[in-house]
Fold this protein.
Amino acid sequence: MRKILGAQLYTLREFAKTPKEIEQTFKKVREIGYTTVQASGIGQIEASELRAIADATGIKIIIT
């Protein structure tokens, strides 16, 4: 089984309070090399908008 390492967004919660900040955080996380995240502790955002941001930045949300 291949292991996948992801970023826990709770650790970045201070940088992900608004939808725009969430998008910027996803971009940075992707630039670092992560492809998956646990989306917890982030600011309020509609699920559909979060999904659109994840898709646009190449990030998979694997757990909340």
Notes: The first helix runs from residue 19 to 32.
